[in-house]
From TrEMBL:
Name the UniProt record assigns to this protein: Uncharacterized protein
Domain of life: Eukaryota
Length: 60
């Protein structure tokens, strides 16, 4: 009887841990996707020179 209770609690705990791992993996995949999309958008955007306060453009 006690072993059945322990087994059911262990199974529920393992389900909980598994669900947490799946959610974490999904969140990390989404963050990687967003990061890659931002990097791609930044690479495709034309570079414009940054103006200084006095209106000049800094030399590279």
């Amino acid at each position: 009887m006690v072993s059945e209770e322990v087994a059911s609690k262990l199974v529920r705990f393992l389900y909980f841990v598994g669900a947490g791992m799946i959610c974490t993996k999904g969140i990390n995949l989404w963050r990687d996707y967003e990061h890659k999309a931002a990097m791609k958008a930044a690479a495709e955007a034309p570079e414009t020179p940054v103006e200084m306060v006095n209106g000049g453009v800094p030399k590279s």
